[in-house]
Amino acid sequence: MKRLLLVFLPIVLISCSFDNKTGIWKDSSDIPVDNQYTKSIRDDETISRYVDIYTKNKTYNEEKKPPNTFRTEIENPVKVENWLEKFGTATNNISNFSYSGNKKLLSKSSRLTKTKSSGYYTNKQIVFYKNNLISHDNKGTIFIYSLTLKKKIFKYNFYKKNFKKVNKKIYFIINENILYAADNLGYLYALNLDENSIIWAKNYGIPFRSNLKFINNQIFLSNQDNLIYSINASTGNKNWQFATRPTYLKSDFENNFALDLINNNLFFFNTSGELYSINYTTQKFNWVLNFKNIALSEDTELFISQPIILKKNNLILTTEEALASYDHTTASRNWILSAEPIFKPILTLNYTYAILKNELLICIDNTNGSVIWSKNIFANVKKKKLKNFFKSIIDFKIVNSEVNIYFNNGYLLSFNPANGNLNHSSRISKSGIKSEIVFLNDNMLFIDSKNKLLKFN
């Protein structure tokens, strides 16, 4: 079946085109499918090794009070001016966001798209550039909404009518005034945000399935077969590509990149449970770790993880059964905790905060992996029905030195980072939350289930 799909998909893709109504692109069927020939390091045992992350320890499941002498140390809140990629930074981690904290609704846009949010893509990716929101709908229409003018100033869709009903998922990153977009049909293209014009578009044949990273005029991304690409940002042409181990069972976990800009290293965590460290200037591999359970035959069960995060020399990764810290230069493990994290952790200079499947919010010492404190999220929540929405957590951030958990039904729970006690709870949106929470210039922004942009001070 997969071979038939790989034969059929390129034929489908080359029949796509930009919508003639926009006048942006005449016919993308002229875009040839890129040659997929590549090298592989999967059999190179000199730098690849299995890591036993499936500990025999009992899964952490207890509440714990912090020591009386414990004093939380979190970096000062960061004021963000532009949100240019998913997770906001090259490291996928911001320790503490600055926000005015008034929680007063300043504005609510009209409906940005007519299409309703679906299970296929409920958590919409949004980016912000020069006070403009850029996002897309399920049909693939990318739009730009001006927060200053409070209206859409640009939109386009380049798919023909026979592909209008195909749900589109588009991954964004912005560098300077250029928006780079990759979709689940295998297209990658660049849009000039100042001129509202397409610079180039390429067809790579296989659906993309990762976040995007940008450095030194290179775009890094991966397709659903775990193939890594380095793309020339000026032309869209391929610099190099590299095959990592594919998996044929698909979960919600997507291939994930993080960048170490100091040492010029690219980290890639794929859906087969492999973690790669690559020097993106020399194109040489530093090390490869494999976290797939070696007791199981290949592709007999899904590998589930959260996005990797990086701070200083500390690389945090998760699996379905563990949360671990590795030295990002040597690949030596600092510590491992038998736990079941359900969301991307937050890494501060001295502590890691995580939400576990058993409804615990925990604080971990970065030096040795010991749990400083752990607290049931709903211990002091008056609205007991909110517990029913535990699996619907849509975002998790530290804001003004408080640990915030956001639910897709519009609720916000805020906790003390020193002990996990609930500071307050409120419903900030009766229409729910359907996007990542973004903090810009001390304001909070997100899209609700009615596809409206809400802005709070």
Structure description:
- The chain has a single domain (2-95, 109-342), classed as Methanol Dehydrogenase, Chain A, CATH 2.140.10.10.
- Helices cover 3% and strands 37% of the residues.
- The chain has one helix at residues 2-13; strands at residues 39-40, 48-50, 105-108, 127-129, 132-136, 142-146, 151-156, 170-175, 178-183, 187-192, 197-203, 213-215, 218-222, 227-232, 238-243, 256-260, 265-269, 274-279, 284-290, 309-311, 314-318, 322-327, 333-338, 346-347, 351-355, 360-365, 371-376, 393-399, 402-407, 411-415, 422-427, 438-440, 443-447, 453-456.
- The longest helix is centred in the N-terminal third of the chain and has 12 residues, at 2-13.
The CATH class turns out to be Mainly Beta
Q: How large, in whole angstroms, is the Cα Rg? A: 22 Å
CATH topology descriptor = Methanol Dehydrogenase, Chain A
Report the mean per-residue pLDDT as an integer. 87
Keywords:
single chain; 457 residues; mainly beta; Methanol Dehydrogenase, Chain A; five-stranded mixed sheet; 1 helix; 3% helix; 37% strand; globular; disordered N terminus
Q: What is the fold's blueprint, element by element?
A:
Blueprint: H1 2-13, E1 39-40, E2 48-50, E3 105-108, E4 127-129, E5 132-136, E6 142-146, E7 151-156, E8 170-175, E9 178-183, E10 187-192, E11 197-203, E12 213-215, E13 218-222, E14 227-232, E15 238-243, E16 256-260, E17 265-269, E18 274-279, E19 284-290, E20 309-311, E21 314-318, E22 322-327, E23 333-338, E24 346-347, E25 351-355, E26 360-365, E27 371-376, E28 393-399, E29 402-407, E30 411-415, E31 422-427, E32 438-440, E33 443-447, E34 453-456
Parallel strand pairs: 1-15, 2-19
Antiparallel strand pairs: 3-34, 4-5, 5-6, 6-7, 8-9, 9-10, 10-11, 12-13, 13-14, 14-15, 16-17, 17-18, 18-19, 20-21, 21-22, 22-23, 24-25, 25-26, 26-27, 28-29, 29-30, 30-31, 32-33, 33-34
